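Assess this:
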Amino acid sequence: MKVLTRLIALLVIIWLAMLVTGYGILTGSNKNVAGMGLQCQYLTARGVVIAQYLHTDSGIIGVTDCPLLRKSIEVVDN
């Protein structure tokens, strides 16, 4: 029972931190537009946010992979 309570408390703290800072955690990604685009899905405290990036395998132009964390446009304290 203690473990479950601590786990729930930890999840609430993480959710509050995401709500105040506006950051989201990567939940999934898809390549689109013939492999030139990268669509990344982030879980934020307010829901799922989708970001589009230019994708190349070399990383010279665009990104090779989705960033693990991303700041969303909407933040609670704005």
